[in-house]
Design a protein that fits this description.
GO molecular function: aldehyde dehydrogenase (NAD+) activity
Number of domains: 2
Shape: globular
Oligomer: single chain
Family: Belongs to the aldehyde dehydrogenase family.
Strand order of the largest sheet: 13-14-15-12-11-17-18
Radius of gyration: 24 Å
Largest sheet: 7 strands, mixed
Strand content: 15-25%
CATH topology of the largest domain: Aldehyde Dehydrogenase, Chain A, domain 1
CATH architecture of the largest domain: 3-Layer(aba) Sandwich
InterPro entries: Ald_DH/histidinol_DH (IPR016161), Ald_DH_C (IPR016163), Ald_DH_CS_GLU (IPR029510), Ald_DH_N (IPR016162), Aldehyde_DH_dom (IPR015590), ALDH7A1-like (IPR044638)
Number of helices: 14
Pfam family, one: Aldedh
Keywords: NAD, Oxidoreductase
Helix content: 25-40%
Length: 509
Protein backbone atom coordinates (compact mmCIF):
# COMPACT_ATOMS: atom_id res chain seq x y z
CA UNK A 1 0.00 0.00 0.00
CA UNK A 2 2.92 2.36 0.67
CA UNK A 3 5.68 0.70 -1.34
CA UNK A 4 6.58 4.00 -3.01
CA UNK A 5 7.02 5.71 0.37
CA UNK A 6 9.14 2.83 1.70
CA UNK A 7 11.40 3.05 -1.34
CA UNK A 8 11.79 6.82 -0.97
CA UNK A 9 12.73 6.35 2.69
CA UNK A 10 15.25 3.61 1.88
CA UNK A 11 13.29 0.77 3.49
CA UNK A 12 13.36 -2.50 1.59
CA UNK A 13 11.08 -5.49 2.14
CA UNK A 14 13.42 -6.64 4.92
CA UNK A 15 15.94 -4.35 6.55
CA UNK A 16 18.45 -4.81 9.38
CA UNK A 17 17.36 -3.06 12.55
CA UNK A 18 20.68 -1.87 13.98
CA UNK A 19 22.64 1.11 12.72
CA UNK A 20 25.55 3.29 13.77
CA UNK A 21 24.80 5.62 10.86
CA UNK A 22 25.03 4.43 7.29
CA UNK A 23 26.17 0.94 8.35
CA UNK A 24 23.29 -1.45 8.96
CA UNK A 25 23.64 -4.82 10.67
CA UNK A 26 21.67 -7.17 12.92
CA UNK A 27 21.51 -10.86 13.75
CA UNK A 28 18.72 -11.01 16.31
CA UNK A 29 15.13 -12.17 16.11
CA UNK A 30 12.81 -10.90 13.42
CA UNK A 31 10.43 -8.07 14.33
CA UNK A 32 7.59 -7.82 11.84
CA UNK A 33 5.69 -4.58 11.52
CA UNK A 34 1.98 -5.04 10.78
CA UNK A 35 -0.20 -2.08 9.91
CA UNK A 36 -3.26 -1.66 12.14
CA UNK A 37 -4.92 -0.01 9.13
CA UNK A 38 -5.40 -3.25 7.18
CA UNK A 39 -3.56 -5.89 9.19
CA UNK A 40 -0.99 -6.43 6.46
CA UNK A 41 2.71 -6.98 6.97
CA UNK A 42 4.68 -3.90 5.97
CA UNK A 43 8.25 -5.11 6.44
CA UNK A 44 10.49 -6.85 8.96
CA UNK A 45 13.58 -5.79 10.86
CA UNK A 46 16.02 -7.78 12.96
CA UNK A 47 16.49 -7.09 16.65
CA UNK A 48 19.83 -6.09 18.10
CA UNK A 49 21.93 -8.71 19.88
CA UNK A 50 23.88 -7.83 23.01
CA UNK A 51 27.16 -8.09 21.10
CA UNK A 52 25.85 -5.71 18.43
CA UNK A 53 24.57 -3.33 21.11
CA UNK A 54 28.04 -3.07 22.62
CA UNK A 55 29.47 -2.37 19.15
CA UNK A 56 26.97 0.45 18.68
CA UNK A 57 27.87 1.94 22.07
CA UNK A 58 31.60 1.79 21.32
CA UNK A 59 31.02 3.54 17.99
CA UNK A 60 28.88 6.17 19.72
CA UNK A 61 31.60 6.80 22.32
CA UNK A 62 34.16 7.49 19.59
CA UNK A 63 31.72 9.78 17.78
CA UNK A 64 30.95 11.66 21.00
CA UNK A 65 34.61 12.63 21.41
CA UNK A 66 34.65 14.24 17.96
CA UNK A 67 31.12 15.69 17.97
CA UNK A 68 31.49 17.63 21.25
CA UNK A 69 34.50 19.51 19.86
CA UNK A 70 32.52 20.87 16.91
CA UNK A 71 31.26 24.40 17.75
CA UNK A 72 27.60 24.44 18.75
CA UNK A 73 26.50 26.66 15.80
CA UNK A 74 28.14 24.15 13.43
CA UNK A 75 26.23 21.36 15.14
CA UNK A 76 23.13 23.49 14.65
CA UNK A 77 23.84 23.56 10.92
CA UNK A 78 23.53 19.75 10.79
CA UNK A 79 20.17 19.96 12.56
CA UNK A 80 19.12 22.68 10.11
CA UNK A 81 19.84 20.30 7.25
CA UNK A 82 17.78 17.64 8.99
CA UNK A 83 14.84 20.04 9.20
CA UNK A 84 15.17 20.92 5.52
CA UNK A 85 15.18 17.26 4.49
CA UNK A 86 12.14 16.62 6.66
CA UNK A 87 10.33 19.41 4.82
CA UNK A 88 10.99 17.63 1.55
CA UNK A 89 9.94 14.23 2.92
CA UNK A 90 7.03 15.42 5.05
CA UNK A 91 4.23 13.81 2.96
CA UNK A 92 6.24 10.60 2.57
CA UNK A 93 7.22 10.17 6.20
CA UNK A 94 3.80 11.40 7.34
CA UNK A 95 2.14 8.63 5.34
CA UNK A 96 4.41 5.98 6.85
CA UNK A 97 3.62 7.27 10.35
CA UNK A 98 -0.09 7.09 9.57
CA UNK A 99 0.07 3.61 8.05
CA UNK A 100 2.39 1.98 10.59
CA UNK A 101 0.89 3.60 13.70
CA UNK A 102 -2.72 4.12 12.62
CA UNK A 103 -3.19 7.83 13.31
CA UNK A 104 -4.88 10.00 10.70
CA UNK A 105 -2.81 11.23 7.77
CA UNK A 106 -3.31 14.81 8.99
CA UNK A 107 -1.88 13.82 12.37
CA UNK A 108 0.97 11.94 10.69
CA UNK A 109 1.83 15.07 8.74
CA UNK A 110 1.47 17.10 11.92
CA UNK A 111 3.92 14.84 13.69
CA UNK A 112 6.54 15.41 10.99
CA UNK A 113 5.84 19.14 11.28
CA UNK A 114 6.68 18.86 14.98
CA UNK A 115 10.04 17.40 13.93
CA UNK A 116 10.62 20.35 11.61
CA UNK A 117 9.61 22.82 14.30
CA UNK A 118 11.96 21.38 16.92
CA UNK A 119 14.80 21.43 14.38
CA UNK A 120 14.14 25.14 13.79
CA UNK A 121 14.06 25.72 17.55
CA UNK A 122 17.30 23.80 18.06
CA UNK A 123 19.12 25.68 15.30
CA UNK A 124 18.46 28.98 17.10
CA UNK A 125 19.33 27.36 20.40
CA UNK A 126 22.74 26.35 19.07
CA UNK A 127 23.79 30.01 19.43
CA UNK A 128 22.10 30.47 22.82
CA UNK A 129 23.48 27.81 25.17
CA UNK A 130 23.92 30.52 27.78
CA UNK A 131 25.38 30.35 31.26
CA UNK A 132 25.22 33.06 33.91
CA UNK A 133 27.85 35.52 35.09
CA UNK A 134 27.85 35.67 38.90
CA UNK A 135 29.31 38.37 41.18
CA UNK A 136 31.89 36.97 43.57
CA UNK A 137 32.18 38.02 47.24
CA UNK A 138 35.97 38.00 46.81
CA UNK A 139 37.72 40.96 45.17
CA UNK A 140 39.45 40.23 41.88
CA UNK A 141 37.40 37.12 41.24
CA UNK A 142 34.89 36.32 38.51
CA UNK A 143 32.34 33.54 38.63
CA UNK A 144 30.20 32.08 35.90
CA UNK A 145 28.47 28.86 34.99
CA UNK A 146 28.60 27.04 31.69
CA UNK A 147 27.19 23.90 30.13
CA UNK A 148 29.07 20.97 28.59
CA UNK A 149 27.86 17.93 26.59
CA UNK A 150 26.88 14.81 28.53
CA UNK A 151 28.03 12.22 25.99
CA UNK A 152 25.59 9.51 24.91
CA UNK A 153 21.85 10.18 25.27
CA UNK A 154 19.65 7.07 25.12
CA UNK A 155 16.16 7.68 23.74
CA UNK A 156 13.41 5.13 24.36
CA UNK A 157 10.17 6.02 22.53
CA UNK A 158 6.60 4.74 22.45
CA UNK A 159 4.49 3.75 19.44
CA UNK A 160 2.00 6.62 19.61
CA UNK A 161 4.47 9.29 18.46
CA UNK A 162 6.94 7.15 16.53
CA UNK A 163 9.04 10.02 15.12
CA UNK A 164 8.29 13.32 16.91
CA UNK A 165 9.45 12.32 20.39
CA UNK A 166 12.79 11.12 18.98
CA UNK A 167 13.18 14.49 17.24
CA UNK A 168 12.31 16.42 20.43
CA UNK A 169 15.22 14.68 22.13
CA UNK A 170 17.64 14.28 19.24
CA UNK A 171 17.51 17.86 17.93
CA UNK A 172 18.28 19.29 21.37
CA UNK A 173 20.83 16.64 22.29
CA UNK A 174 22.73 17.10 19.03
CA UNK A 175 23.10 20.87 19.31
CA UNK A 176 24.12 20.39 22.94
CA UNK A 177 27.01 18.25 21.72
CA UNK A 178 25.63 14.82 22.65
CA UNK A 179 25.28 11.78 20.42
CA UNK A 180 21.99 9.87 20.39
CA UNK A 181 21.10 6.20 20.68
CA UNK A 182 17.48 5.40 19.80
CA UNK A 183 15.51 2.38 20.91
CA UNK A 184 12.08 2.75 19.21
CA UNK A 185 8.92 0.84 20.03
CA UNK A 186 8.91 -2.64 18.50
CA UNK A 187 5.40 -1.77 17.26
CA UNK A 188 6.69 0.99 14.95
CA UNK A 189 10.26 0.08 13.98
CA UNK A 190 10.03 1.24 10.36
CA UNK A 191 9.46 4.88 11.30
CA UNK A 192 12.72 4.77 13.24
CA UNK A 193 14.62 3.19 10.36
CA UNK A 194 13.28 5.88 8.03
CA UNK A 195 14.48 8.67 10.36
CA UNK A 196 17.86 7.03 10.77
CA UNK A 197 18.28 6.85 6.98
CA UNK A 198 17.48 10.56 6.74
CA UNK A 199 19.93 11.74 9.38
CA UNK A 200 22.62 9.24 8.39
CA UNK A 201 22.67 10.59 4.83
CA UNK A 202 23.09 14.13 6.18
CA UNK A 203 25.94 13.11 8.46
CA UNK A 204 27.67 11.27 5.62
CA UNK A 205 27.40 14.25 3.26
CA UNK A 206 29.04 16.39 5.93
CA UNK A 207 31.88 13.88 6.46
CA UNK A 208 30.89 13.27 10.06
CA UNK A 209 31.64 9.98 11.87
CA UNK A 210 29.41 6.97 12.37
CA UNK A 211 27.73 6.86 15.77
CA UNK A 212 26.44 10.42 16.10
CA UNK A 213 22.97 8.95 15.61
CA UNK A 214 22.36 5.23 16.15
CA UNK A 215 19.38 2.88 16.28
CA UNK A 216 18.98 -0.39 18.17
CA UNK A 217 15.86 -2.51 17.68
CA UNK A 218 14.28 -4.85 20.18
CA UNK A 219 11.89 -5.33 23.06
CA UNK A 220 12.00 -4.32 26.72
CA UNK A 221 15.27 -6.22 27.20
CA UNK A 222 17.02 -3.84 24.79
CA UNK A 223 15.65 -0.91 26.75
CA UNK A 224 16.98 -2.50 29.94
CA UNK A 225 20.49 -2.64 28.43
CA UNK A 226 20.32 1.12 27.89
CA UNK A 227 19.01 1.80 31.40
CA UNK A 228 21.76 -0.30 33.01
CA UNK A 229 24.59 1.05 30.86
CA UNK A 230 26.92 3.47 32.65
CA UNK A 231 28.16 4.61 29.26
CA UNK A 232 24.74 6.18 28.58
CA UNK A 233 24.75 9.50 30.44
CA UNK A 234 21.06 10.32 30.08
CA UNK A 235 18.12 7.99 29.45
CA UNK A 236 15.06 9.76 28.05
CA UNK A 237 12.14 7.34 28.20
CA UNK A 238 8.57 7.83 27.01
CA UNK A 239 5.88 5.28 27.77
CA UNK A 240 3.77 3.85 30.55
CA UNK A 241 4.18 4.69 34.22
CA UNK A 242 5.02 1.02 34.87
CA UNK A 243 7.87 1.16 32.35
CA UNK A 244 9.07 4.52 33.67
CA UNK A 245 9.29 3.29 37.25
CA UNK A 246 11.51 0.41 36.13
CA UNK A 247 13.75 2.77 34.13
CA UNK A 248 13.94 5.27 37.00
CA UNK A 249 15.03 2.64 39.53
CA UNK A 250 17.62 1.13 37.22
CA UNK A 251 19.16 4.43 36.11
CA UNK A 252 19.13 5.84 39.65
CA UNK A 253 20.87 2.67 40.85
CA UNK A 254 23.93 3.67 38.82
CA UNK A 255 23.46 7.40 39.63
CA UNK A 256 22.69 8.18 36.02
CA UNK A 257 20.33 10.84 34.72
CA UNK A 258 16.82 10.09 33.48
CA UNK A 259 14.11 12.11 31.77
CA UNK A 260 10.71 10.45 32.04
CA UNK A 261 7.53 11.20 30.07
CA UNK A 262 4.92 8.76 31.32
CA UNK A 263 1.17 8.31 31.65
CA UNK A 264 -1.53 10.95 31.65
CA UNK A 265 -5.08 11.07 33.01
CA UNK A 266 -6.02 14.41 31.60
CA UNK A 267 -9.15 16.39 32.39
CA UNK A 268 -11.01 19.39 31.02
CA UNK A 269 -13.01 21.38 33.56
CA UNK A 270 -16.16 22.88 32.06
CA UNK A 271 -17.57 25.72 34.16
CA UNK A 272 -20.93 27.49 33.70
CA UNK A 273 -18.95 30.28 32.02
CA UNK A 274 -17.60 28.05 29.23
CA UNK A 275 -18.08 28.62 25.52
CA UNK A 276 -19.86 25.36 24.72
CA UNK A 277 -18.99 25.31 21.02
CA UNK A 278 -15.28 25.53 21.82
CA UNK A 279 -15.71 23.01 24.61
CA UNK A 280 -17.26 20.35 22.38
CA UNK A 281 -14.59 20.73 19.68
CA UNK A 282 -11.76 20.58 22.22
CA UNK A 283 -13.22 17.64 24.10
CA UNK A 284 -14.03 15.54 21.04
CA UNK A 285 -10.63 16.04 19.40
CA UNK A 286 -8.90 15.43 22.72
CA UNK A 287 -10.81 12.20 23.28
CA UNK A 288 -10.84 10.63 19.81
CA UNK A 289 -7.75 12.13 18.15
CA UNK A 290 -5.15 9.37 17.56
CA UNK A 291 -7.94 7.03 18.75
CA UNK A 292 -7.32 8.18 22.31
CA UNK A 293 -3.69 7.00 22.20
CA UNK A 294 -1.97 10.27 23.06
CA UNK A 295 -0.45 10.74 26.49
CA UNK A 296 -2.31 14.08 26.44
CA UNK A 297 -5.64 12.60 25.29
CA UNK A 298 -8.67 13.88 27.19
CA UNK A 299 -9.81 11.12 29.56
CA UNK A 300 -12.10 13.06 31.90
CA UNK A 301 -14.58 15.88 31.42
CA UNK A 302 -15.47 17.53 34.74
CA UNK A 303 -18.68 19.48 34.13
CA UNK A 304 -20.67 21.78 36.41
CA UNK A 305 -24.11 20.42 37.29
CA UNK A 306 -25.89 23.51 35.91
CA UNK A 307 -24.72 22.79 32.36
CA UNK A 308 -24.09 19.05 32.65
CA UNK A 309 -27.08 17.88 30.62
CA UNK A 310 -26.49 20.46 27.90
CA UNK A 311 -22.84 19.44 27.49
CA UNK A 312 -23.69 15.74 27.67
CA UNK A 313 -26.36 15.99 24.97
CA UNK A 314 -24.05 18.01 22.70
CA UNK A 315 -21.27 15.45 23.08
CA UNK A 316 -23.54 12.51 22.33
CA UNK A 317 -24.75 14.31 19.19
CA UNK A 318 -21.16 15.11 18.14
CA UNK A 319 -20.07 11.48 18.53
CA UNK A 320 -22.71 10.43 16.02
CA UNK A 321 -20.81 12.44 13.39
CA UNK A 322 -17.43 10.79 13.95
CA UNK A 323 -16.24 8.86 10.92
CA UNK A 324 -14.06 5.83 11.65
CA UNK A 325 -11.92 4.14 9.03
CA UNK A 326 -8.73 4.16 7.00
CA UNK A 327 -6.62 6.99 8.51
CA UNK A 328 -5.14 7.75 5.09
CA UNK A 329 -8.61 8.86 3.99
CA UNK A 330 -8.86 12.48 5.15
CA UNK A 331 -12.66 12.20 5.51
CA UNK A 332 -12.21 9.97 8.56
CA UNK A 333 -11.77 11.43 12.03
CA UNK A 334 -10.45 8.32 13.73
CA UNK A 335 -8.32 5.37 12.69
CA UNK A 336 -7.55 2.10 14.46
CA UNK A 337 -5.94 1.25 17.76
CA UNK A 338 -2.33 0.11 17.45
CA UNK A 339 -3.04 -3.64 17.73
CA UNK A 340 -5.49 -6.26 19.03
CA UNK A 341 -3.87 -6.16 22.47
CA UNK A 342 -4.95 -2.51 22.71
CA UNK A 343 -8.44 -3.57 21.62
CA UNK A 344 -8.54 -6.07 24.49
CA UNK A 345 -7.62 -3.32 26.98
CA UNK A 346 -10.39 -1.16 25.50
CA UNK A 347 -13.06 -3.84 25.94
CA UNK A 348 -11.83 -4.69 29.45
CA UNK A 349 -12.03 -1.03 30.46
CA UNK A 350 -15.63 -0.77 29.25
CA UNK A 351 -16.53 -3.87 31.25
CA UNK A 352 -14.92 -2.40 34.37
CA UNK A 353 -16.85 0.87 33.94
CA UNK A 354 -20.08 -1.12 34.07
CA UNK A 355 -18.91 -3.31 36.96
CA UNK A 356 -17.95 -0.27 39.03
CA UNK A 357 -21.30 1.47 38.55
CA UNK A 358 -20.74 3.67 35.52
CA UNK A 359 -23.37 4.35 32.87
CA UNK A 360 -22.49 4.04 29.19
CA UNK A 361 -23.95 6.93 27.17
CA UNK A 362 -22.32 6.09 23.84
CA UNK A 363 -21.78 2.37 23.46
CA UNK A 364 -18.47 0.96 22.31
CA UNK A 365 -17.88 -1.88 19.86
CA UNK A 366 -15.11 -3.58 17.94
CA UNK A 367 -15.87 -2.94 14.28
CA UNK A 368 -15.75 -5.70 11.68
CA UNK A 369 -16.47 -6.11 7.99
CA UNK A 370 -15.09 -4.35 4.95
CA UNK A 371 -12.45 -1.80 5.83
CA UNK A 372 -12.08 -3.15 9.35
CA UNK A 373 -10.28 -6.42 8.59
CA UNK A 374 -7.37 -5.70 10.94
CA UNK A 375 -9.64 -6.07 13.98
CA UNK A 376 -8.20 -2.87 15.46
CA UNK A 377 -11.07 -0.45 14.79
CA UNK A 378 -13.35 0.47 17.69
CA UNK A 379 -16.14 2.92 18.40
CA UNK A 380 -15.42 5.81 20.78
CA UNK A 381 -17.20 5.61 24.12
CA UNK A 382 -18.74 8.13 26.51
CA UNK A 383 -19.50 7.04 30.08
CA UNK A 384 -20.92 8.72 33.18
CA UNK A 385 -18.72 7.87 36.16
CA UNK A 386 -17.44 8.97 39.54
CA UNK A 387 -13.87 10.23 39.75
CA UNK A 388 -12.93 7.70 42.44
CA UNK A 389 -13.70 4.62 40.32
CA UNK A 390 -10.58 2.46 39.96
CA UNK A 391 -10.90 2.40 36.16
CA UNK A 392 -11.13 6.21 36.07
CA UNK A 393 -8.04 6.52 38.24
CA UNK A 394 -5.96 4.58 35.71
CA UNK A 395 -5.00 5.43 32.13
CA UNK A 396 -6.59 3.44 29.31
CA UNK A 397 -4.98 4.13 25.93
CA UNK A 398 -8.26 4.14 24.01
CA UNK A 399 -11.08 6.53 22.99
CA UNK A 400 -13.06 6.34 26.24
CA UNK A 401 -14.27 9.65 27.66
CA UNK A 402 -15.49 9.87 31.26
CA UNK A 403 -18.06 12.49 32.24
CA UNK A 404 -17.93 13.63 35.89
CA UNK A 405 -20.37 16.09 37.46
CA UNK A 406 -19.33 18.72 39.99
CA UNK A 407 -21.24 21.26 42.05
CA UNK A 408 -20.30 24.47 43.83
CA UNK A 409 -17.26 26.56 42.91
CA UNK A 410 -14.43 25.80 40.52
CA UNK A 411 -12.29 24.83 43.52
CA UNK A 412 -14.29 21.60 43.72
CA UNK A 413 -13.62 20.84 40.06
CA UNK A 414 -9.90 21.47 40.50
CA UNK A 415 -9.84 19.09 43.48
CA UNK A 416 -11.42 16.37 41.33
CA UNK A 417 -9.01 17.03 38.49
CA UNK A 418 -5.98 16.77 40.76
CA UNK A 419 -7.26 13.67 42.54
CA UNK A 420 -5.49 11.17 40.27
CA UNK A 421 -1.96 9.76 40.35
CA UNK A 422 -0.93 11.32 37.03
CA UNK A 423 -0.18 14.97 36.30
CA UNK A 424 0.48 15.61 32.64
CA UNK A 425 -2.05 17.88 30.91
CA UNK A 426 -5.13 19.79 32.04
CA UNK A 427 -7.51 22.44 30.78
CA UNK A 428 -10.35 24.68 31.86
CA UNK A 429 -13.10 26.08 29.67
CA UNK A 430 -14.27 29.43 31.05
CA UNK A 431 -14.68 33.08 30.13
CA UNK A 432 -14.37 34.05 33.80
CA UNK A 433 -10.97 35.63 34.55
CA UNK A 434 -11.02 34.66 38.21
CA UNK A 435 -11.70 30.98 37.40
CA UNK A 436 -8.94 30.95 34.79
CA UNK A 437 -6.36 32.57 37.04
CA UNK A 438 -7.21 30.32 39.99
CA UNK A 439 -6.77 27.30 37.73
CA UNK A 440 -3.26 28.53 36.78
CA UNK A 441 -2.27 29.51 40.33
CA UNK A 442 -0.49 27.38 42.92
CA UNK A 443 -3.95 26.44 44.20
CA UNK A 444 -4.96 25.23 40.76
CA UNK A 445 -3.91 22.46 38.40
CA UNK A 446 -1.05 20.27 39.62
CA UNK A 447 -0.15 19.23 36.07
CA UNK A 448 2.90 20.10 34.02
CA UNK A 449 0.60 21.57 31.35
CA UNK A 450 -2.39 23.76 32.20
CA UNK A 451 -4.46 25.35 29.43
CA UNK A 452 -7.29 27.85 29.32
CA UNK A 453 -9.91 27.58 26.57
CA UNK A 454 -8.04 24.96 24.59
CA UNK A 455 -8.01 21.20 25.09
CA UNK A 456 -5.47 18.97 26.77
CA UNK A 457 -3.92 17.77 23.52
CA UNK A 458 -1.74 19.44 20.89
CA UNK A 459 1.20 21.08 22.69
CA UNK A 460 3.52 23.40 20.75
CA UNK A 461 7.25 22.74 20.77
CA UNK A 462 8.11 26.19 22.17
CA UNK A 463 7.00 25.23 25.67
CA UNK A 464 8.57 22.60 27.90
CA UNK A 465 6.54 19.38 27.63
CA UNK A 466 6.07 17.06 30.58
CA UNK A 467 4.21 16.39 33.79
CA UNK A 468 4.32 15.75 37.52
CA UNK A 469 3.53 12.89 39.91
CA UNK A 470 3.39 9.53 38.09
CA UNK A 471 3.93 11.30 34.78
CA UNK A 472 7.60 11.31 35.77
CA UNK A 473 8.60 14.96 36.17
CA UNK A 474 10.56 15.17 32.91
CA UNK A 475 10.57 18.10 30.49
CA UNK A 476 11.28 17.88 26.77
CA UNK A 477 11.13 20.16 23.76
CA UNK A 478 11.07 23.94 24.33
CA UNK A 479 11.79 26.56 26.98
CA UNK A 480 14.99 25.62 28.85
CA UNK A 481 14.55 21.83 28.57
CA UNK A 482 17.91 21.82 26.76
CA UNK A 483 19.69 22.08 30.12
CA UNK A 484 18.78 18.45 30.87
CA UNK A 485 21.01 17.36 27.98
CA UNK A 486 24.12 19.07 29.36
CA UNK A 487 26.19 19.01 32.52
CA UNK A 488 26.39 22.25 34.44
CA UNK A 489 29.73 23.57 35.67
CA UNK A 490 30.45 26.53 37.97
CA UNK A 491 33.75 28.32 37.30
CA UNK A 492 35.62 30.79 39.50
CA UNK A 493 38.63 32.75 38.18
CA UNK A 494 41.05 34.63 40.44
CA UNK A 495 42.94 37.27 38.45
CA UNK A 496 44.86 38.74 41.40
CA UNK A 497 48.10 37.82 43.22
CA UNK A 498 46.19 37.19 46.47
CA UNK A 499 44.26 34.07 47.55
CA UNK A 500 41.32 35.19 49.71
CA UNK A 501 38.99 32.40 50.86
CA UNK A 502 35.23 32.49 50.74
CA UNK A 503 33.18 33.23 53.86
CA UNK A 504 36.08 35.29 55.23
CA UNK A 505 38.07 32.23 56.29
CA UNK A 506 41.79 32.83 56.87
CA UNK A 507 44.45 30.21 56.30
CA UNK A 508 47.86 31.81 56.70
CA UNK A 509 51.16 29.99 56.21
Amino acid sequence: MIKKELDLLGIKSENPGTSTGTKWFAKGNKITSFSPVDGKEIAAVLSTTRKEYDKVIETAQKAASAWKDIPAPKRGEIVRQLGEQLRILKPTLGKLVSYEMGKSYQEGMGEVQEMIDICDFAVGLSRQLYGNTIHSERPGHRMYDQYHPLGIVGIITAFNFPVAVWAWNAALALVCGDVVLWKPSEKTPLCAIACQHIIADILKKNNLPEGISSVVSGDAETGKWISEDKRVALVSATGSTRMGKAVAVTVAGRLGKSLLELGGNNAIIVTPNADLKMTIIGAVFGAVGTAGQRCTSTRRLIIHEDIYKKVKDALVAAYKQIKIGDPLDVKNHMGPLIDTQAVDMYTEAIAKVKEQGGKILVEGAVLSGKGYESGCYVKPVIAEVENHFDIVQSETFAPILYLIKYSGGVENAIALQNDVAQGLSSAIMTSNLREAELFLSNKGSDCGIANVNIGTSGAEIGGAFGGEKETGGGRESGSDAWKLYMRRQTNTINYTTELPLAQGIRFDL
